[in-house]
Specification:
The protein has 640 residues and is of the alpha+beta class. The chain contains 13 helices and 31 strands. β10 and β11 form a beta hairpin.
Length: 640
Amino acid sequence: MQSQDVAPRPTPHSADPVVDVEQAEAALVEHYPRLVRLAYLVLPPSLGRNRRVVTAHALTQRALPRGRTPAPVIPAQSTGRDGDPGYAFVRLRVLRTALEAGLPLKRAAWPRRAQLPPLLPQVWGLRLFPRSGGADELALDQRLSALSGPARAAYVLRGLEQLPDHEVCRVLTAAGCADPDAALQEAGDVPEQYALLDSPEFDPCSLQARPTDLMRRRQHAKAALAAAAALAVCGALLGLPGDGWAPDGAAAPVYAKNPAAEAALDPAKLARVAPTAWQVSARTDFSVWPARGDLTGDRALLRRALAVWARPGESVRVSATPGTPSGGPSGPPQLLYAGTVDSAHVVILYDGLRIVRYAEPKDGTKGGAALDFARVDDAGRAEASALVLGRADGNVRYLTAPWVTKAAERDLLKPGAGATDLAITDGVTAPLANSSAQNGSCTSWNVLQLTDATGTRLATDLGELVPARLTTGRPGATHEVGGADGLRTWAPYACSLAALRSAGVREVNTWEYARQPLPDASGSADWVCTRAETWRGGGTRVLAQFHTPGGQYGAIAAKAENVPACGAKDPQVLAGVLWKAEKGSWYLLAAGSRGTASISTTGGVRASARGGLLAARARQGVRAELKGTTDDGRSISGLG
């Protein structure tokens, strides 16, 4: 990593605006996640992810002034975070100390506080690190690690804070950067993938936890216990006459080996299912998948996969879908796949609750291993039809269920186009374009089409091990997206699937709940509700979308999380949107699903209508609250 000196801190001018501790504290509390993310991105990656996380929180929490302090002279926009001098002050303090933390230690000078490991916060016995992202996030992290500290800061201020270059220079100068122009030039060598800076890969407030070196802790604990036991025995011999039992009697030592845990790490004890088991079994899920792949007999590879599952080391990248436990196996798991996928050796295991994917470089280089967990309890035939084997070069490969007879690739945005067949070799599909990894404009959304004896179904990769199943139809009567009607229903709303990435989604259903004539007589608009169910039950996401005639994409009018609306328990949904007619007039449009008796609005627009549709004149930017009643007299609120 390059180093760059940090210039002396500028002296505040008496005419600068003054920030007191209360104002700075309010800004810090309100924007704490963003400030910690900024510190995490600027800190040198050589610290390791655990120390970067802890240091980012420590630097942010120490950003409060001790009293009334002149704010930095930073140009501020008239609105937004930067209009608050308190935020500008704490941001500058965080940035300055993060840059100081990356400076090399010098023998002739005392280290600055930011260069030392933080005293607080500390979590004993655990390593903390953000959730793993995709290949794009990993590549960006590697590019940023090659930059100097000021260059990383310039890239983050450009992308995360969206500051123009001249303001970036001023902020870097105020933070003590000796040559901000050189930092900007160096940051310009990294592609502008600013949207990735908001990803979970760089979020030190949404963390995963793993134990530290258990063997070393165990050795230290044994030594401490032995010393304590020796002292206790000596005390007992000196203070008590005669002999007696120890406090735990004849119990085994605390760290005695567990036979079940030892068996779980033995490749010879892995469960393997016969290739024809699915044809005679009463179950049709992952438990009847046979073991496939060209490395199912490689005991050394299987042993490494099981050992890493039980005790992932510092260099292992671990990810898990929300709500999925990531502990070791309780007994010998079932082997589903072991083979070579592109440039990696991949092992897929199943323990009745989780799918676990282990991957390592096939060239035998150390490091770079990955371990992914996905919850799959209560999976049925539809959900257990495919797994993600690997992603490379913008493509994804799947391992299909033994009952799948045909696989194809289909662009969900083009319902009239045909599907492109994918070759299946030993259950592994040919690569297909991975739409969930694309950045920027959404020009296509490729999904996996699977066919078996029961029919055809669609699934889409949302960045996890198990692709999400796509359905359509009113809640309680959903069906597979196999026919032309289902494909046309999904086409305008396929790009909204990007908002559901890495959320542990099991199934996504979309259905048209209302059609509304537009006030300017330009046709009728469609109201669609999209609901994403998760494997863990909680965290469901609901989107109400609005699609006007001739538009290619639907617009998200409202969204909510963890609500029963638009689901089997409560199919009722109500949403509204501000819409501009071709002649320039603005309207508030609202629609409720079948069974809505009336709709009313309060706030910036006051109107009411009988039935499930409402259209009222409005002003641009106005805010209103929706209320409705159902045919049975129940009150409902607008979504979002």
